[in-house]
Design a protein that fits this description.
The complex is a heterodimer. By secondary structure, chain A is an all-alpha fold. Chain A has 19 helices and no strands. In chain A, helix 2 runs antiparallel to helix 3. In chain B, the strands form 5 sheets. In chain B, strands 16-15-14-17-18-19 form a 6-stranded mixed β-sheet, sandwiched between helices. Chain B has a 4-stranded antiparallel β-sheet with strand order 5-4-8-9, with helices on one face. A 3-stranded antiparallel β-sheet of chain B has the order 1-3-6. Chain B is elongated and about 130 Å long. The chains are: A mainly alpha, B alpha/beta.
C-alpha cells in the first residue's frame, strides 16, 4: 500500500481548495451548472460543515519533537496571557477571568494543531468559526454554568436589548483568546515553513504537483525567515510581558508563598502576587522553542544538501539546550537585582555634585581675576574715589542647595552606582554590537550634518577618554612595582688608579707610559687638545714646560712607533721607554 | 539572523525606570543567552582542529583513501559542525565531501573517503571549510583548514622489454655487441692466444694446464646513461591532438624512465613543461642522470605533476641545456613532429657526441610519419612513432 504523499493531491481537480487565492468567503467558484441555484446554493454552501482540508502531512522526526513544540508554544502563550490578565486585574479587580487561562491553553493548542496541517496562512471563516466560537461562548456563559439561575435573569435582558450580550469584559476576553490563537497559528505556520517544503527536495515525486510552490510567502534558501519570525514574535511578546508585569508590580506587592503558587497552578483567579514569575518562564520556554526551531532549520538544510545526520546529534542538541538554559537561569537568579536608587536618582545626584563643583570653580576664577585686576583699578585716576564710594561688587552667589531629601546611606549609593555602572558597561557593549550588526544606523546619522558633527565629537571624546584611560592604566601598572622595590643606593666608587703593567704587552706598556705622562701634564694644567696629534702636543708642551725635553720627545717617538708602527716592539724598546717615562715623572713632579 | 540586543536594551531602560527585580532577571536572561551564544560559537570555531592524512603519491587506477580527523580541543561541546572538503573533479564525483557531526568536549571523530586516481596530475586535496554555531541561531562561525598536501598521480607506465638504445658509455652491466666495450670484470671464457693479444690477458693457470697459451675472453658491457627530453609545448602539437599528444609523450617518457630504472641505469629528464610544485612554476630545467629508486620516483613524480605550457620553444631549450648533459649520454627526444629547428638541434647534439633517438607522438597515421622517418634516417637518427599505447610494442617485440 502506498504511503500517503507528503503533500496530498487535492481531492478535486480544476478547483482550488476552500478559501483559496480568491480569498475570503466566496473564494470558491461555483460550478457552471450551479449558477442558476442562486441563494439556495449559496445557503447550502454556507451551511455545509467545514472540510478542514489537510494541505500537508505533519512531519516530525520523533515523538519528542511532536510533543515539545506544541507544549513550548502553548506555554509561552499562556505565560503572556497570564501577564496580561494580571495587568488587567491590577487595573480592574472585578474583571471576570476565571476560565480565560484554561481556554487560552485550549485555543492555543487548537491553533497549533490546525495550522500544522496548512501550507498557506488562510483565513477560512467556517473553520475558524468552528474552532473559536465554542471557547468564546464558553467564556461568555461560564458564570451561568456556575450559577444557572443567573441565565434566567439574563435571557430576558438580552432579548430586550441584544447589545447587553456583548459586555466589555467578554469582548476583551475574546480579544485575548484571539491573540492567543493568532500567536499560536503564526508560530505553527513558521514551524511548518522551517521544514522541507514541497518541491524543494531534489527528485521529490510530488514536486510535479506544483501545489506547494504556489506560495505567497518568500521562500528563502536557508529557511531563516520563519525562524526570524518566531524569534521576533517571541521577543516582542517578551517586551510586552515585561512591561505588563512591571505595570502590574507597581500596584501589587510581589511575594512568593504557597497560596499564591497554588492559586496560579490550579488555574484559579490569577495570582497577582506571582504575576511576575511567568516572565521568567516565558523567556525560558521561548528560548527552548527557538533552540528547537534552529535545530529543525539546520536539519532541513542538511537534508536538502543530502547530508547524513548523525543519530546522536538530536539527543545532544536537546541536552545542550536544556543544560545551557538551566545554567543561564541559575546565573540569572543568582545575580543581584536589588538596589536602592534608580538610574535617574543616581544621575541626578551625580549631576548635582558636578554642578556644585562647577559653581565653585566659577567663583574661584572670578575672585582670582578680581584680585589680579585690583592694582589696575588703583592706578586709574578718579576711579579710586569713585570706586570707593561704590559698594564692592560681590561675586555671584552660588545657587542655593536643593532641600535635603531623605538621607541615603553612602553604602547604598555606592552599591547602586556600581550596579548601574556595570549595567551601563553591558549596555555600551551591546550598543557597540548593535552598531556593528546594523550598518544602516550610521547611514541615518550621516544624513544630517549636525548629527554627523555631534557623532564625530562624541567619537573623538570617547577616543580621547580611552587613550587617557590607557595611559593612566599603563602608568599605574608601570609604577606599581616601584612601590615594592627598595631604592637602590648608589655606591660611588672611585676609579681604579693602579694599573698592573705586567699584564700588558710591549706595545700597550709603551702606550700606557705615554698616556701617563699626558695625564700628569693635564693635572698640571696643560691638557692635550683632542684634535692635536702626539707630535703637536709634544711641541706645545715643550714650549710650556721646557724641562720635559728631551725625554718627552723620545717617549713620543716610542709611542708613535708602538702605536702605529708595523715592526714588533722589543724589550729594549720597552726599557728605553720606561726609562724616559720615569725621568719625566720625576721632572713633572717637580714642575 | 535575529538580534536580541535591541530588546535587551529596551528591557534595561524599562528596568532602570521601574526598579523591579524581575525585570533584571529578564535582562540577565537575554544578556546571558546572547553572551553564551557569542562566546560559545567563537570558542567553538577556534577550537576545531583538523588533520588530513593521505598518501602523497599514487599510481594510475589506484584507489586512495583519505582520512580526515576532526577534533574539538575545548571544554565546550559543539552542538553541530558542518564540514565540507573540496576535492579534485578528476578524482572524485561529486567534487566535495560533506558531513555533519556533533562533538562533545575533547571529542574527535574520523571520516574517510576514497579518491579514484583516474588521471595523472598534481591535485590539491582541500581546502576544508567548517561551519558551526550556537544553539539559538544567533551566530554562525566558520573555520578552515587550508590545503596541506597534494596528491601526485603517476602517469601511465607501460612495461617495456628492450629499448635497444645506443650508448657510448662502457663498463656498465648492460650487454652489448660492441667488442670495444669489453669489461675486464666479466670473464666469460678462454681462447687460444693470437698474435697481438695483450700479455695481461693471458690466463697462466689455464695455459699451464693446456700446454699452450690461453687468453681470457671478456664480455662486452656498457652503461646506458640516458636523458629523456620531453616536449610538452602545446603550440608544437596540432590543436586537436595537443592534449592527447602531450599525454602520450608523458606516458612514453614515464615508461622509458621506469624501464631504465629497472635496469639500474642512470636516467635524467629535461622538459619544457611547468612544475606546479615549484614556487614560480618555471619550466623544469632538468634533472641530471642518476641511478637509484629515489631518482626514478623523483622523475615519475615530476612527470605526474608536469603541466603543458602554451608555448615554450623546445629546440631552443635543447641547445641551451646541451652543455649540462653528461658526455656520451643517450638522448631520447619525445616531441610532436619534426621541424627544421628541431632537426638542426638534433644534428648539433649528434655532432657533440650524443647518441640521439627521437620519438614522435603527433603523427596520427603511419603515412604522415614516413617522411619524417626517412629524413631522420638520413641524418643517422633513430626514429619512432608513438600515437597510441600499442605503438610502444616496438620496444616489446625485440
Amino acid at each position: 500500500m502506498m504511503s500517503p504523499p507528503l503533500y496530498p493531491q487535492p481531492p478535486f481537480l480544476g478547483r482550488p481548495p476552500q478559501g483559496g487565492k480568491g480569498g475570503g468567503v466566496g473564494g470558491e467558484l461555483p460550478p457552471q451548472g450551479a449558477r442558476g441555484r442562486g441563494l439556495r446554493g449559496e445557503l447550502a454552501r454556507w451551511l455545509a460543515p467545514p472540510e478542514f482540508y489537510r494541505e500537508r502531512e505533519v512531519t516530525v522526526a520523533n515523538w519528542v519533537e511532536g510533543i515539545f513544540e506544541p507544549v513550548a508554544v502553548v506555554a509561552t502563550i499562556v505565560c503572556a496571557v497570564i501577564g496580561l490578565v494580571g495587568f488587567g486585574l491590577a487595573l480592574v479587580p472585578r474583571w471576570e477571568t476565571e476560565p480565560l487561562i484554561p481556554l487560552s491553553i485550549v485555543v492555543a493548542a487548537e491553533a497549533f494543531l490546525y495550522a500544522r496541517r496548512l501550507v498557506h496562512a488562510r483565513f477560512n471563516v467556517k473553520e475558524w468559526a468552528a474552532l473559536l466560537l465554542p471557547p468564546f461562548l464558553l467564556i461568555r456563559f461560564w458564570p451561568h454554568v456556575l450559577l444557572p439561575t443567573r441565565l434566567l435573569d439574563d435571557l430576558p435582558r438580552w432579548w430586550s436589548d441584544p447589545g447587553t450580550f456583548f459586555t466589555f469584559g467578554w469582548v476583551v476576553n475574546c480579544l485575548i483568546l484571539l491573540l492567543a490563537w493568532w500567536m499560536s497559528f503564526s508560530t505553527s505556520l513558521d514551524l511548518n515553513r522551517i521544514r522541507v517544503q514541497q518541491g524543494e527536495m531534489p527528485g521529490d515525486e510530488s514536486a510535479a504537483c506544483g501545489y506547494g510552490l504556489d506560495d505567497d510567502h518568500v521562500r528563502l534558501i536557508d529557511h531563516s525567515a520563519p525562524l526570524r519570525g518566531i524569534a521576533n514574535r517571541f521577543l516582542w511578546g517578551g517586551l510586552l510581558v515585561v512591561t505588563w508585569g512591571g505595570l502590574t508590580a507597581l500596584t501589587v506587592a510581589q511575594s512568593w508563598d504557597l497560596a499564591a503558587v497554588t492559586q496560579l497552578v490550579t488555574f484559579g483567579r490569577p495570582s497577582q502576587h506571582l504575576a511576575l514569575a511567568n516572565v521568567v518562564l516565558y523567556y525560558v520556554f521561548g528560548f527552548l522553542l527557538i533552540g528547537e526551531a534552529q535545530y529543525v532549520r539546520l536539519r532541513t538544510l542538511w537534508r536538502l544538501d543530502r547530508l547524513a545526520i548523525p543519530s546522536n546529534l538530536a539527543p545532544r542538541w536537546a541536552a545542550y539546550l536544556v543544560g545551557a538554559m538551566a545554567l543561564i537561569l541559575l546565573v540569572t537568579m543568582a545575580l543581584p537585582t536589588d538596589y536602592a536608587l534608580t538610574l535617574a536618582d543616581v544621575v541626578s545626584v551625580v549631576l548635582g555634585i558636578l554642578s556644585q563643583i562647577l559653581v565653585l570653580l566659577v567663583t574661584f576664577v572670578y575672585l582670582l581675576f578680581s584680585l589680579l585686576l585690583w592694582p589696575l583699578r588703583l592706578l586709574s585716576p578718579g576711579t579710586a574715589s569713585e570706586q570707593s564710594s561704590e559698594a564692592p561688587v560681590l561675586p555671584p552667589q552660588p545657587p542655593p542647595p536643593p532641600p535635603p531629601g531623605p538621607p541615603i546611606p553612602l553604602l547604598e549609593f555606592l552599591r547602586s552606582a556600581a550596579f548601574l555602572m556595570i549595567g551601563l558597561l553591558v549596555v555600551i557593549y551591546l550598543l557597540r554590537v548593535l552598531w556593528r550588526e546594523h550598518p544602516p544606523l550610521p547611514r541615518w546619522l550621516s544624513a544630517s550634518p549636525l548629527l554627523r558633527g555631534v557623532a564625530h565629537l562624541v567619537a573623538a571624546l570617547l577616543r580621547g577618554l580611552a587613550r587617557l584611560g590607557r595611559q593612566v592604566v599603563t602608568t599605574v601598572v608601570a609604577a606599581l612595582p616601584q612601590l615594592f622595590v627598595r631604592p637602590v643606593t648608589r655606591v660611588v666608587t672611585t676609579p681604579r688608579r693602579w694599573l698592573s703593567l705586567r699584564g700588558l704587552g710591549h706595545r700597550d706598556r709603551i702606550i700606557s707610559f705615554y698616556l701617563s705622562v699626558v695625564e700628569r701634564a693635564t693635572q698640571l694644567g696643560h691638557p692635550k687638545p683632542p684634535a692635536a696629534t702626539a707630535s703637536e702636543y709634544t711641541r706645545a708642551l715643550r714650549t710650556r714646560l721646557p724641562l720635559v725635553d728631551p725625554e718627552l720627545e723620545e717617549l713620543t717617538s716610542a709611542f708613535l712607533e708602538a702605536r702605529y708602527g708595523p715592526r714588533p716592539v722589543t724589550d729594549q724598546g720597552v726599557s728605553f721607554a720606561r726609562s724616559r717615562w720615569q725621568a719625566l715623572k720625576v721632572k713633572l713632579r717637580r714642575a | 539572523m535575529f538580534s536580541i540586543v535591541p530588546f535587551a536594551l529596551a528591557i534595561f531602560l524599562v528596568a532602570s525606570m521601574f526598579r523591579l527585580a524581575f525585570m533584571y532577571h529578564a535582562l540577565y536572561l537575554l544578556a546571558g543567552v546572547y553572551l553564551a551564544a557569542h562566546f560559545w560559537s567563537r570558542r567553538g570555531a577556534e577550537s576545531l582542529e583538523f588533520r588530513r592524512q593521505h598518501p602523497e603519491r599514487a599510481f594510475l587506477g589506484e584507489i586512495v583513501r583519505v582520512q580526515l580527523d576532526v577534533r574539538n580541543r575545548s571544554l565546550l561541546p559543539m552542538p553541530w559542525v558542518r564540514i565540507q572538503e573540496r576535492l579534485p573533479l578528476s578524482l572524485a564525483a561529486p567534487a566535495q565531501f560533506a558531513r555533519v557531526v556533533s562533538l562533545a568536549p575533547h571529542e574527535s571523530t574520523t571520516f574517510s573517503y576514497e579518491l579514484s586516481c583516474r588521471q595523472r596530475g598534481y591535485y590539491p586535496i582541500g581546502p576544508l571549510s567548517a561551519w558551526t554555531g550556537d544553539l539559538f541561531g544567533l551566530f554562525e562561525r566558520s573555520a578552515a583548514c587550508p590545503i596541506s598536501r597534494h596528491l601526485t598521480v603517476y602517469p601511465q607506465i607501460v612495461a617495456l622489454e628492450e629499448l635497444g638504445l645506443p650508448s657510448k658509455s662502457p663498463f656498465g652491466h648492460l650487454r652489448t655487441r660492441e667488442p670495444l666495450y669489453e669489461d675486464p670484470a666479466r670473464v666469460i671464457g678462454v681462447r687460444d692466444y693470437a698474435s697481438g693479444d695483450s700479455l695481461r690477458k693471458i690466463n697462466w693457470k689455464t695455459s699451464a694446464a693446456a700446454g699452450r697459451l690461453q687468453v681470457k675472453k671478456y664480455e662486452p658491457a656498457m652503461t646506458l646513461q640516458t636523458v629523456v627530453l620531453l616536449n610538452l609545448s602545446l603550440a608544437d602539437y596540432q590543436r586537436q591532438h595537443a592534449y592527447h599528444g602531450t599525454e602520450m609523450g608523458i606516458v612514453v617518457a614515464a615508461s622509458v624512465v621506469h624501464h631504465l630504472g629497472q635496469l639500474r641505469q642512470e636516467v635524467g629528464l629535461l622538459t619544457n613543461g611547468g612544475d606546479p610544485a615549484s614556487a614560480d612554476n618555471t619550466p623544469v630545467t632538468g634533472v641530471l642522470p642518476r641511478k637509484g629508486r629515489a631518482q626514478i620516483v623523483r622523475l615519475l613524480e615530476l612527470l605526474g605533476r608536469v603541466q603543458q605550457p602554451d608555448h615554450a620553444p623546445f629546440a631552443e631549450l635543447l641547445g641551451r641545456e646541451a652543455i649540462r648533459f653528461p658526455w656520451g649520454a643517450t638522448l631520447i627526444v619525445v616531441t610532436a613532429q619534426e621541424t627544421e629547428e628541431l632537426l638542426r638541434a638534433l644534428i648539433a647534439l649528434q655532432r657533440s657526441g650524443f647518441p640521439v633517438t627521437v620519438v614522435y607522438d603527433d603523427y596520427p597515421s603511419q603515412f604522415s610519419f614516413e617522411r619524417a622517418e626517412r629524413r631522420a634516417a638520413g641524418l643517422g637518427i633513430r626514429c619512432y612513432r608513438v600515437w597510441k599505447e600499442e605503438d610502444l610494442n616496438v620496444w616489446r617485440r625485440r
